[in-house]
Design brief:
The structure holds 2 protein chains of 2 kinds. By secondary structure, chain A is of the alpha+beta class. Chain A has helices spanning 5-9, 11-31, 33-36, 40-55, 57-74, 89-173, 175-201, 207-235, 247-264, 284-301, 337-342, 358-368, 392-396; strands spanning 243-245, 268-273, 280-282, 311-318, 324-330, 372-378, 382-389. Chain A folds into 3 domains: 2-134, no CATH class; 174-237; 239-396, Heat Shock Protein 90 (2-Layer Sandwich), CATH 3.30.565.10. Chain A has 13 helices and 7 strands. In chain A, helix 2 (11-31) packs antiparallel against helix 4. The longest helix of chain A has 85 residues, at 89-173. Chain A is rod-shaped and about 160 Å long. Chain A starts with a helix and ends with a helix. Chain B is α/β, with parallel strands linked by helices. In chain B, strand 1 (7-11), helix 1 (15-27) and strand 2 form a beta-alpha-beta unit. Chain B has helices at 15-27, 38-43, 64-73, 89-97, 110-142, 146-156, 161-168, 172-185, 191-205, and strands at residues 7-11, 31-35, 51-56, 80-84, 102-105. Chain B folds into 2 domains: 2-129, 3-Layer(aba) Sandwich (Rossmann fold), CATH 3.40.50; 143-205, Arc Repressor Mutant, subunit A. Chain B is 58% helix and 12% strand. Classes of the chains: A alpha+beta, B alpha/beta.
Chain lengths: 397, 206
Amino acid sequence: MNHFAPRRSNALLRYGAAPTFVVAALYLSFALRASFGNPAWFFFPAAVIAATWIGGKGPGGVAVVLSTLTVQYYFVPPIGSLGINRHDLPYFLIFVVCEALASWVISWRKDAEDAIRQARDELEVRVAERTAELKDANKALLAKMDEQQRTQEDLQSTRTELARVVRITTIGELTTSIAHEVNQPLAAVVANADACVAWLSLQVPNLTEARAAAERAIQGATRASEVIARIRSLINKRPPERIPVQLNIVIEETSMLAASQAAKNGVTISNELDPNLPCVVGDRIQLQQVLFNLVMNAMEAMSSISDRPRELKIRSQVQDSGQILVSVEDTGVGVNAETMARLFEPFFTTRAQGVGMGLSISRSIIEAHGGRLWADSSLGHGSTFQFALEHAEATRA
Amino acid sequence: MKDQEPIVYVIDDEALIRDGIQSLIRSIGLRAVAFSSPSEFLQAKRFEAPSCLVLDVRMPGQSGLDLQRQLNDADIFIPIIFITGHADIPMTVRAMKDGAMEFLPKPVRSQDLLDAVQKAIERDREQRKVHAELTEIRGRFNSLTPRETEVLNLVVAGLLNKQIADKLGTSELTVKTHRARVMEKTAADSLAHLVRMTERLKAVQK
């Protein structure tokens, strides 16, 4: 609307144009009367047209009235009065009608033009407005997408962190086992280094024996550093990876780390691994965490068993569907139906010191790898926890 | 006799530790044989020589403590030196109650281990000597006839020949003959010696 305000303030100019043009026509008509006979018939319609063109309908009407009166006064006999001869009246009326018609046509045309211009202007404004609205909407959408992305990232990092914390908790439960894991190779280093010194201290040093002992000491030290690297990689903070993982190696490492804990609990761990097991794609540490968890749970489930051997069997195999299946089987107390229903719920635990996140995290890890984790149990005979994952080729396809 | 030379049995599931300890023991001139598990040790032939066991407590399957129990139950008395990475008090108490010689933490200080091994072998040597003596004495006593055994029991109870004859309803002369046979068969120098041998046998039979 702001756009039309200057028009209104020009009202004086618009209406002023009518008498100005009429006066100009009058002056020109007098000035050129000598050379052109009676040019009033030409100049006054021109003045009306000009006034209408500039001022519109209103000033056009004013110009018509003014020029009619002026022509009637100055150029229609009797000159100098508003009277008119009877035989001049039709011509004069035709002149007036023509003038009015011209003014109407011009103003109509101008109105139409104005309307078009206005419509165009309005359209431009509307287009600009809509464009601005669209831009805002776009911006809002982008911001929202950004926020969602951030939320997603936050969620991911929270999940990773939670998994790490649970992993550390699990490792905490394994402290004696881990201490043993580190201490064993160190004990080997000390024993062999001592033996080496002893062989060298003989009156006739036995270099062959000393060398063999020194080599065993080196092996022990290497083993110790490997164990520490393995534990550190479990504790380290880092985003999950997606790389080919050989599950058999993960299983062997896990049972190795759990071996002394198992010995302490009188549990025999046996692995039945498919030697031709293909790789899966995923995060080795997280998958190891899942196995760890299942192994710890299995050992826990067997802690009160005394009437049968405490056996833990980890199996890897390729299913007919091509999926890789890993199962952890125990001869423990088993899981009743009520517990089974809640087994994978967060914070659900049957242990006094348990956090109850292990299985829930394990399932979310396996699901994030595009697989599934489930449990079968027969009360009083033991349970089997297993997970199935696509092999690396299938994941890529 | 090679078989009479002391021997140390090392049992640890960890090959590097096993080999290290075995090497250390051999370096001081002792024989050492290593096994990866208690069952492997039980199946192997053992030497009739002063010996001892260096035994890891924690092993998969049968633990060192289980083996100790099993040997005790089978009346195989061989001094045991336990080595362990993390001994708790109940574990140590149980091992010592069951007659362990030593309980050494891993990593083992070589001097501690070698001292313990020497001590254990000395003890086993003593044990074997005593055992051999007892076996011999028991053999001699077992060669007595029932009548001679009756006489023996009354003699060591402090009765005079005459009292014994009364009790058994025989003549003093017969008792004297029996008594002489007992002294001869058991190779006793004196009455006091005979009593001491009888007491030793009784102590073991308890």
